[in-house]
Amino acid sequence: MDGALGKKYLKDYSAEVQPILAEFLSAEMEVSKDLGKIPLMLMDSYKDMISRGKGIRGTLVKLGYLVGGGKDVDEVVRTSIFVELFHSAILIHDDFMDRDPFRRGAPTVHEEFKKVGKDFGVRIPLDHYGNTAAVCLGDAGLYLSWKALLNSKLPQDRVIEASKLYADFIVRLALGQSLDMTITGMEDIGEQDILTVIWTKSGEYTSQLPLFVGATLAGGMGDEKLAALKDYAKCFGWAFQIQDDILGLYADEDELGKPVGSDIREGKNTLLMLNLRKHGRSADKKFMRKVLGNPNVSVEDVEKMRKILKESGAFQKVVDMGWEYVEEGKQYISRITKDKKLLEVLESLLVYMMERTK
Amino acid sequence: MDGALGKKYLKDYSAEVQPILAEFLSAEMEVSKDLGKIPLMLMDSYKDMISRGKGIRGTLVKLGYLVGGGKDVDEVVRTSIFVELFHSAILIHDDFMDRDPFRRGAPTVHEEFKKVGKDFGVRIPLDHYGNTAAVCLGDAGLYLSWKALLNSKLPQDRVIEASKLYADFIVRLALGQSLDMTITGMEDIGEQDILTVIWTKSGEYTSQLPLFVGATLAGGMGDEKLAALKDYAKCFGWAFQIQDDILGLYADEDELGKPVGSDIREGKNTLLMLNLRKHGRSADKKFMRKVLGNPNVSVEDVEKMRKILKESGAFQKVVDMGWEYVEEGKQYISRITKDKKLLEVLESLLVYMMERTK
User: Fold this and answer.
1) Total Cβ atoms within 10 A of residue A310
2) Cβ separation of A122 and B181 shorter than 8 Å?
3) In chain A, which stretches have pLDDT less than 50?
4) 3-state secondary structure of A106
């Protein structure tokens, strides 16, 4: 089975959830009107950013709920916007930390508000002003996410259980991010630190959190099913992250919506770099050390890096690893659900994580 | 009545809550151990910072619960740590935004982690690294706050109601903060913007949020009592903020725990400055424009600013305003509760907001 069904499922979820998100945020903007222009402009950027999300995490909340036997699909979809609200909010913080200029095809919030600050004649340094705007908007978004979750009409005890899971996962994500910033650009860090960083932001957060929250909202599941869901989530998270790293260097820039090669400029220790360090020739590694974390790296050097990764075999190793996770993940699905339709969606969506081009 | 009883009530609350906070955070550090050294060092700074808080907001949660007729005092105190966890987390973000070097007598997180980053040999610019560490730790703290609230053993429907209030207030606080950063250092902003900024961070957040959350956890109160509580909260918030502005410029630096005059260096439009703009001579206003927002302002200029504020009468106007709020606030108390002990605590604590020296 290919990823077509999974891709369509994602697209359908996004189409379903976008009007709910838009309505939720419009109501919030109405409430914030008395705070003046800048807060409203920030909320507008947030709304715009969310409308361009892929909806992977929200889709997994819905799927977790369905495999958990939940029946109120409309309400879980309404509830699932919490994770989309969260994801955009934390990306606003991440983009400031990574000093990324673009996201989803538009300037990032800290970049956009440098310009806004200039127009408004702010007196603090514009770079700093942009950063503070991003942190404020991210903070507001984190609490909007909580509001969406707590407003769920699903049973209160399940909402509280799901909320506790949500809190636990995000504490780890935020602390894992501090480790990420610490090792960014470092040459001689242990593989374990790299894997910890990748794991907290992909496996734990991107796949396990939404699937588990969904299952919890449905009323939970037996230990054996839950263990299978966790194994599936692990494979899903790795496949997602591996393709993310690959797309970050090999995608079509217009389709990706952010600069190809920014991982190199930012000195991110991706799986591609880890494999080059393990399997590359010493000249390749020397070149990697030269370009990794260099903010002024040229288009030619990014192109050379792409070539080296392919020629050294590091690229293929990472691709293979991704597909191995897909194959492993498939094996757990029959223990998660007996529902034919869901079986197919879980499998196809997993495959799509490696097939996707953005 | 003076503020002695209120001061003691605050102190007793702090003594009661500190071991609960310490235990909560120690358990969290145990969970985060696998993330490595940096996350643990961050959590350690957070724990340390919280241990030096005044506990005003947590005390108000407890008082809101008591005037709401709540009986499980031990559990509401355990629950109230959420607002202390929140307050320290958001201060970590605020300190980065205000570029404050000190807080509660110790270096701020973004300052401390510049040095830590250097010791660890991080590759991104150290200033930026310090800022990212502060944002990560703040984010983690926000979610630890949620965890503490959701773990409350008080009735679940009340916890959810209180949580929704909490989310709503903080969205406004975060967006209000973006307005604060926008008008920082500006000379010709409207009084309304200044009052909005002060109101969202003092009245709404510092007093109304914790009092209302406490009352909600107790099961709510009638409309008339709630209206009186809101009026009291308004006066409490203004008195708190007015004294905060005064202490920021006139306190003993060692006692305050942060540099006296930092509001001037940061260009904060405090009530003192607003009154000088309204009532000062043109030479005074000219001097104010010269120093406000100047990061290199001298000790002599800060001293001169203090003198100008006193001589122009702006200082006294703000002090008077604070005491007027105290007097107004006292009038609402008898409509909030009939309990003699609580009546006295509410009155004395309100007085203490203007009497406090740190």
Assistant:
1) 12
2) yes
3) none
4) strand
CA atoms of A54 and A14, how far apart (whole Å): 7
Rounded distance between C-alpha atoms, residue B159 and residue B135, angstroms: 27
Work out the average pLDDT over B331-349.
98
Whether A127 contacts chain B with CB within 8 A: no
**Cα torsion angle, A120, A124, A130, A135, sign:** negative
Q: Which of B98, B175, B199 to mutate to test the interface with A (most CBs of A within 10 A)?
A: B175
Look at B160 and A164 and tell me if their CB atoms are within 8 Å. Answer: no
Amino acid A164 reads: K
Nearest to A45 by CA among A162, A145, A141: A141
- Closest by CA to B209, choosing from B157, B154, B172, is B172
The residue of chain A nearest to residue B132, with distances taken between CA atoms, is A97
Instruction: Find the CB nearest B174 among A139, A163, A170.
Output: A139
Rounded to whole angstroms, the Cα distance separating A329 from B86 reads 39
Give the pLDDT confidence of B57-74 residue by residue, as tens digits.
Answer: 999 999 999 999 999 999
| Complex ipTM more than 0.90, yes or no | yes
Structure tokens at A225: 């099913």
The C-alpha angle B146, B149, B151, rounded to 5 degrees, equals 105
The reported pLDDT for the residue numbered A10 is 98
Alpha helices in chain A (DSSP H): 4-32, 37-51, 56-67, 73-98, 109-120, 126-150, 156-183, 191-199, 209-217, 223-250, 253-256, 262-265, 271-279, 282-291, 299-311, 314-336, 340-355
Round to the nearest angstrom and report the end-to-end CA distance of chain A: 20
Dist CA A173 CA B85 (whole Å): 18
- Using a CB–CB cutoff of 8 Å, tell me whether A27 touches chain B: no
pLDDT digits (tens, 9 = 90+) for A8-27: 999 999 999 999 999 999 99
Strand, helix or coil at B154?
coil
Q: At what angle do helices B191-199 and B156-183 cross, to 10 degrees?
A: 150
Cβ of residue A176 closer than 8 Å to a chain B Cβ: yes
Whether B338 shows a pLDDT value over 90: the answer reads yes
Count of Cβ atoms closer than 10 Å to residue A358 Cβ: 14
Residue B101 has pLDDT above 80, yes or no: yes
Q: Report how far residue A122's alpha carbon sits from residue B183's, in angstroms, rounded to the nearest whole number.
A: 7
**Least Cα separation, residue A183 to chain B (angstroms):** 7
Q: Which two tokens stand for residue A142?
A: 């984190």
Query: pLDDT for B34-53, tens place per residue?
Result: 998 999 999 999 999 999 99
Q: Does A92 touch chain B (CB under 8 A)?
A: no
DSSP, collapsed to helix, strand or coil, labels residue B223 as: helix
Q: Is B102 helix (H, G, I), strand (E, B) or coil?
A: strand
Of the candidates A179, A172, A170, which has an alpha carbon nearest to the alpha carbon of residue A97?
A179
Token digits of residue A3: 């990823």
CB distance B92 to B46 below 8 Å: yes
d(CA A63, CA A212): 10
Prediction pTM value: 0.96
In chain B the first and final C-alpha atoms are separated, in Å, by 20
Share of chain B above pLDDT 90, in %: 81
Cβ neighbours of A15 (radius 10 Å): 10
Query: CB under 8 Å to B3, separation ≥6 — which residues?
Result: B348, B349, B351, B352, B353, B354, B355, B356
Q: Which two tokens stand for residue A86?
A: 């969260």
How far is Cα A143 from Cα A90, in angstroms, rounded to an integer?
11
Specify the DSSP element, H or E, that contains B106.
strand B106-107
Contacts of A147 by beta carbon, 8 Å cutoff, 6+ apart? B164, B167, B168, B171
> What whole-number distance in Å separates Cα of residue A250 and Cα of residue B332?
66
